[in-house]
Please model this.
Amino acid sequence: MTSAVQTSKKKNIFMRFLTMNTSGEASGRELPLWRQLLLQLLTLLIAAAVMFPIMYVITMSLSSVSTRPSSLELFPKEISLDAFKQVLDRPTANPVTFWELLKNSFLLSFGVGLAALLVAVTAAYAFSRFNFKLRQILMILVFIPLLMPAIGLMTPLFLMMNSFRIFDCGSGMIAIQPFLSCASTGKLLFNLRDSLLGVGIAMISGALPFAVWNLKGYLDTIPKELEEAAAIDGADSNQVFFRIVLPLAAPQLAVTFFLGFIGHWQEFAMPWLFLTKPESYTLAMTLYNMTGQYANAIPWNRFSAMAIIVAAPVAVIYIALQKQIVGGLTLGGVKG
Model:
């Protein structure tokens, strides 16, 4: 009898240990210890799965050997920066410097983020504040491109951008297609499709739908009474928009811009399809250009170093603005 009581007490102590609340929460649902341990184990497994390829790439980038390692090495045996130096000096065989590639990537992603923001904030304000005919239909039409795969929109964009070209017809005559054409074959001076400007315009068309919906949801949370009070004080529509609405929406404007910047920093498919001149290449295109026909022909240490350089700005910006990005998206989705 005594043994049974002692066994029961030991079981009760063990169960109390597993079910005790160690989360420190005074209110809300208690989190038993066994569930906390299970969640911690799950997060460790997820962290290991995420960090595995990152550690592998870092290890290869710090190696002085360009061949693929024969064994799985997650921790570097040596620390050599030769691969980073080679990438910064000359990324590929093309006569394009790293700084030109960096400039192209920065101009493309920065320009797309800024242009999409300027257009989206005015469209979102119109959808949020004004009642006009076909408003709901237009909102749905803006949303439809988000449901389509981006690769499916590249063919019509390619044909549209490729139709705008400038020719030198000779004798000082310039023809701009599709409006004018040369009587005979002229010299091609500019092709909108084969330029960073054309790629940027195509990217803006893909970035606008999300930016409009994201900003529209945030503008819905700004009280209209503030605008009405400003109008009573004599402010016109432009003053209300620039002095009242934009300052209040500044956090979400920053989040929308950085999401557009980050999303297009590593864009590869559209620039690779549109651009043919090496001087217009971006960092993501150059990274793909470093791959050869066979795996053994790839300079793995330089490839890994280039991958880290390309990913580093995005990772730093996202980590620095993680709270603002998550908070802005959550607040912007309160109303639709």
